[in-house]
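User: ok so my PI wants both of these folded by tonight, can you help

Assistant: No problem, let's get them done. Here's the first:
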Amino acid sequence: MKTIDLRKARERQRREEYKETILHAAESIIVRKGYRATTMDDIAREAQFSKATLYNYFRSKGDLTYEIMLHYFDDIKRSLAGIQGLDLDPMEKLKRTILTILEVYDERENLSRAIMMDDSEHGIMKAFVAEQKGTSSPVEKKFIKTMKAKRREILEMGCAIVRDGIRCGAFRDVDASSAMNFLNAVLQGVLHLRAWMDPKPGAREEAEMIFDFLLRGIEKEHAPSPLKGDSQ
């Protein structure tokens, strides 16, 4: 029985390694050629696998693209899990969380843009639009459902940091989910603006700015409250 279990474990590991190789090959090709111009033949050559082997893992370029996007969330989740396991105060964990998300985006910015901007029949944007209209296919529905679940997991990891901060007195008593939704909105806005910024600030610089604004806002310390009706 143990021999069979070991064999199954080795097979699972082999398949995961092959899958990772294919995903990285696809990412590389899409960045170089663009999503629309990339073919399954291109990906098979880049991964140095036969096309038959490629189709054993992914039925189509659309399925492969969905997996790449889900892989993006998995990368963030793994990084945040590492931060949670560190012996750090909640403020430092929150700052590192912000920095990690910005760094992962920086690493895959060109890939994300190539995929998200594509408007082909099997593009990511089509899946989002179809889901909103209620016309998505079973594959698209599964992709959107899985992505939302992974996003919730990431937000919950952030909520756990906020709750720890509240318990130890580092943060004031706020609704952790609302705080993380606000932080997510700020991060999404910053990431969107990065496409228009030239030159772009470094991830560490931006993380410090976002963290400072999240904790302190723009209110001057000990500033007097303006009196109602007071005009000067």
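One down. Here's the second:
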Amino acid sequence: MALEIVWTKRAQVGFSEIVDYLDTHFAEKEIGEFIRQTRDFLELLSHYPEILESSTKQKHLRRGPINKYTILTYRVKPRKKQIELINIRSSRQRLPK
């Protein structure tokens, strides 16, 4: 049974920032490809919630790549039958200082 995917505000903002970055630096094709890859990965994740490794710092979180440029952090809520997306960030962007 697939778990429901729930986006936090932080994950929504991170996703939007990646799309904005792609829009500024790449063609429309790359934006579509990123959205498709993300959608496909989240579908897979909903069926296999332990696909990514547990965080070494916080055991209740899982973290790993959606693709070679994008990192996802999430937690599984088995009682609610949900996966809560905590953050999505791109390795192409510079982190704020």
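The chain has a mean pLDDT of 91. The radius of gyration is 14 Å. Good luck tonight!
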